[in-house]
Write a structure and sequence with these properties.
By secondary structure, the chain is mainly β. 6% of the residues lie in helices and 52% in strands. It contains three helices and 20 strands. It has a ten-stranded antiparallel beta sheet. The longest helix has 6 residues, at 13-18. The radius of gyration is 18 Å and the shape is globular. 43% of the residues are buried.
Amino acid sequence: MKKLLLVGLLGGLLAAWLMPTPAIAQDAFDGTWKVDLNKAHMPKKPDILLLQNGIYECKTCTPAVSIKADGEDHKVTGHPYFDTMAVKATDDHSIQETNKRDGKVVATSTMTVAPDGKTASFEFTDSSNTNADPVTGKGTMTRVALGPKGAHAISGSWRTASYSSVSDNGLTFAYKVDGDNLSMTSPTGQSYTARMDGTDAPYKGDPGTTSVSIRKLGKNSLQETDKRDGKVISISKMTVAADGRTMDIAVDDKLRGTSMSFVAAKQ
């Protein structure tokens, strides 16, 4: 299910979407920051799901997924965070998904469509992008388009409306400026130290991000570019407010063709 790719889109979708980027002035960017979910603007581009005739498809996953919805592990390729996926319908309005890597469960999720079919709720536990405790969360989706007649209720186009909760380890990160270098660390084990001149540096602890570059854009603004095997997968712009208390984060997800924005508060 797309949710896990998120968090992985809060994965990755959470990694890419919820772990912003650094800065230039030490007194402005240094410290621990936490994303405020109440000020998050999620992507407008919908996710397209289909469960029909025993086959589950995530048409907007990157790459797209099509497997039997029989609850058994099925091999998937091209996904750095997991290599098998199992999906099953628990009733005519709900599904469960389990993702594994090297035989180990790295993410689970559920999606439940409301009786009127207009909204859906989801819950997830994701350790595919963490070297510590899993990231957990809940949220809601709104329907954009119906699926084909006779398909399971989750079928159709859905837009993420909001996250009602995400564990602190998926929202918190820290920066440290030392001369021309910026270092980032997170509770889930991601880290890097990069020169703020656009030079590529190793991105550690993330199966889906191999390098990062940081470029200074202004006094309190900078840009982070994340790459996977040399290919740009996301570009984020961070701007610290004049009072130093908040950071605006705008993310351009090149991999999925979406954009989103967040506000992080200094802790």
